[in-house]
Specification:
Elements (H helix, E strand, L loop, with lengths): L13 E5 L4 E5 L5 H7 L17 E6 L2 E2 L7 H6 L2 E3 L4 E2 L3 E4 L2
Parallel strand pairs: 1-7
Antiparallel strand pairs: 1-2, 3-5, 3-7, 4-6
Bound molecules: FE2/S2 (inorganic) cluster (FES).
FE2/S2 (inorganic) cluster binds next to loops.
């Protein structure tokens, strides 16, 4: 996993709710949200898996992302309604995503 900024690994498991699919996931430290979502069987587009293409951009419905990508602007990061799930984590411990 490549990190553009911040810590590359969340220190604790992260709860991720895939709202559209109705799936709750626990993402362990060292695992990306993208990998956890794919392991759960959800098809997610991710071209680079390295923080730079933007294809894995996902809407955030609840929670505070920890942005580690090189795609979003500072304004988009501050707004927090979207994130790159291949590398980014969460500050809130729980995210509800539009997946
Ligand atoms: S797959 Fe390219 S930024 Fe996430």
């Amino acid at each position: 996993m490549t990190a553009a900024s911040g810590s590359a690994v969340d220190p604790a498991p992260l709860q991720v709710v895939c709202a559209a699919a109705g799936i709750d996931l626990v993402v362990p430290p060292g695992t990306s949200i993208l990998d956890a979502v794919r392991d759960a069987g959800l098809p997610v587009t991710a071209a680079c898996t390295g923080a730079c293409c933007g294809s894995c951009e996902t809407r955030v419905l609840e929670g505070e992302p920890e942005h580690r990508d090189a795609v979003l602007t500072a304004e988009e990061r501050a707004f927090g309604d979207t994130m790159m799930i291949c590398v980014s984590g969460a500050r809130s411990g729980r995210l509800v995503l539009d997946l």
